[in-house]
Design brief:
Layout lengths: L5 H51 L6 H20 L5 H50 L5 H17 L5 H26 L4 H19 L5 H17 L1
Helix pairs in contact: 1-2, 1-3, 2-3, 3-4, 3-5
Length: 236
């Protein structure tokens, strides 16, 4: 544009300066608002990073707890997506920090389930071995010893950890069937009376016969014999 008349020059300049000043103020206010928003976004995302890092560092020993913490982390991830960008220099850094915390959590969870799966496989192998032992005993008529052995196997069973849910009932039913088979036979043979009691009764009856057949020797020998009879009675 060319020059204007001298009498209008100052007026038109002031008008132009006022307009550009207003534009500059709006422009500055716009970018100040962006900076403020970016700063607020960085603060919000930093808080989410701290929460994610705290979750990732928690000690976990149960499957249900992993699922509970996974839901907490998923909620943080959803919240992260609702927050805008931070400044260009900070945005990638804060994202990498959040992602690192999430990756650490999921890596630990994956490792836990891998070890848990291996442990369940070992548990299954141990329970199969107990089933085989119980099945090998179920036809036994050595009632006392087999009863003790099966009770011991049942104690061992309780000490073994879980197996996969779909195989849990199957392996338990197999073990229980072997135990029930033996104890059912035992009850049929003894009419529900524990054979150990029968054996104890026979031992005590035999001892009574021995006492009745005892012939006195002298006071000292008779005392020794009495103490021996009493000791053997108490041991039965």
């Amino acid at each position: 544009c060319g020059p204007v008349e001298k009498e209008h020059r100052e007026t038109i300049w002031e008008r132009f300066k006022a307009a550009t000043s207003q534009v500059n103020k709006k422009h500055q206010a716009y970018f100040e608002k962006i900076k403020a928003n970016q700063k607020a976004n960085l603060v919000a995302k930093t808080a989410l990073c701290e929460k994610a890092e705290e979750i990732a560092a928690r000690e976990v020993t149960e499957s249900n707890t992993w699922n509970e913490y996974s839901k907490e982390l998923e909620a943080l991830q959803k919240e992260w997506k609702t927050i805008g960008f931070a400044s260009k220099k900070d945005n990638q850094k804060i994202y990498d920090r959040f992602r690192s915390a999430c990756d650490h959590f999921y890596n630990r969870k994956r490792e836990y389930y891998s070890q848990f799966k291996d442990q369940m496989t070992r548990n299954m192998e141990m329970k199969v071995a107990l089933c085989e032992k119980a099945e090998a005993m179920k036809e036994s008529t050595d009632w006392k010893k087999t009863t003790e052995d099966l009770i011991d196997l049942q104690k061992q069973w309780k000490e073994i950890g879980p197996v996969s849910r779909k195989k849990s009932d199957q392996i338990w039913n197999r073990f229980r069937a072997a135990c029930d088979y033996f104890f059912d036979n035992k009850e049929k043979n003894y009419g529900g009376i524990d054979p150990q009691y029968v054996e104890n009764l026979n031992k005590k009856l035999a001892l009574i016969e021995e006492i009745n057949a005892y012939e006195s020797v002298d006071k000292y020998a008779d005392g020794e014999a009495m103490r021996d009879f009493m000791s053997r009675w108490n041991e039965i």
